[in-house]
Amino acid sequence: MIRRLLRLVPPGTVPVGAGLALVGLASYVHLAVAGHTLTPGDYSSLSVLWSIVFTVGIGVFLPVEQEVARLVAARRTRDLPPGPVLARGATVAAAVLTLLVLAVTAATDTLAERLFDGNRAMVATLVGALVALALAHTTRGVLAGLGQFTWYGSQLGLDGGLRIGGVAALAAAGVDSPVAYALVLVAAPLLAVALTAPPVARAVGGGTPMPWPPLLRGLALLTVSSLLSQVVVNVGVINVRLLAPDDVATAGALLSALVLVRIPLFVFGSMQAALLPGLSTAAATDDEAAFGGLLRRALAVVTALGVGGGVLTVLLGPWLVHALFDAPAVLGRGDFAWLAVATLAYLWAMVLGQALLARDRHRAQAAAWTLGVAALAAATLAPLSVALRVELGYTVGSVVVTAVMLALLRRRRQSDPNPPVAVTLPATAPGGVR
């Protein structure tokens, strides 16, 4: 089954997959070193900042990367220069980044007091991390569209390697400041962008300015879906800090647990590069048998990943989070069971979301994630313990998204005079923890 899916893998998936693997490893090393070095309160602040960065940052800048990559790839097939797309994509990313920076700056005092124990430097670091993600995703879009997958994978790998080296240096120097460990999320991607800049620099300029509609068409809906999907998978840590500001142990332990249970999401990130083009091709040619067969096989693969990973984390999770991250013993096997079920449902939703995108149903995907976030919010208000409320929210939200997407996919497809065209894109890891 996996071999059949791998036959769909486009050139360059190996370096991209290797880069993703190193970024994933860096996440574990970063949090493990910080967990053993920082106090529970400081680790909780780092956990919240981590969750905000990868919820908001990936949610709003990954769609820019995908649209830039799609348009650059399309222009490349017609021997048109990529510069006009880069200019428009950079403008969009800069505009979104400006709005985020203004919002964070205006709420500096509130964010510092409610989320970071009054540490305003953590808010400044949050701004820096968002700037780094904006640059990284925009440049990766150009690299992907140009087919420069070795450079793309190298940027991911450099980001991961620099993170590992950075936290190792901090630990060796005896640094115990949460700001220092947070700054690694700023410095590593910025250096990775600089070291992989040559192909992007060569793409600057050339050609007539590109009209806005090709880039903006569908970008708003794609951004909504991307942002809400990151909310479902990441907001639990933030909610712990909002619902129980003094419960610093649970916030840090929950992020450590989520890092473990979401290992299958990194595997799906590599498989996604093959899945979307295959589904898009089948949808564009009205080959329902191929579409359904590929969708069923993809669901079978992620089910195996989710169940296998879930069983291991339920059995070993409480011990692993303490051994790897020095997390307090506040979560038991029952907590890991909820998180494992939620991650399995989230994996299903990610696969079904690709099926909706392949059918050019951006609005349907956005509607499903909107309903899922609404269900998450409702479940989080249940009169239960804080940990169980956020775990239940993650589970209910993911299950609702999956159910809605299944219902939407079962509807008879309306004829489309302009069927979607399959475009090969590398996939960054979904699920936010990177």
Question: Can you characterise this structure?
Answer:
Helix 3 (40-77) packs parallel to helix 12 (248-261), helix 5 packs across helix 6 and helix 11 packs parallel to helix 16 (362-380). This protein has helices at 2-6, 13-37, 40-77, 83-106, 108-115, 120-145, 149-172, 178-195, 198-203, 213-216, 219-243, 248-261, 263-284, 288-325, 333-358, 362-380, 386-410. The protein has 434 residues and is mainly alpha-helical. It has one domain (2-410). Residues 414-427 have low confidence and may be disordered. It has 17 helices and no strands. The chain is globular, with a radius of gyration of 21 Å.
Please specify the SSE layout and strand pairing.
Elements: H1 2-6, H2 13-37, H3 40-77, H4 83-106, H5 108-115, H6 120-145, H7 149-172, H8 178-195, H9 198-203, H10 213-216, H11 219-243, H12 248-261, H13 263-284, H14 288-325, H15 333-358, H16 362-380, H17 386-410
Helix pairs in contact: 2-7, 2-13, 3-4, 3-6, 3-8, 3-11, 3-12, 4-6, 5-6, 6-7, 6-8, 7-8, 11-12, 11-16, 11-17, 12-14, 13-14, 13-15, 14-15, 15-17, 16-17
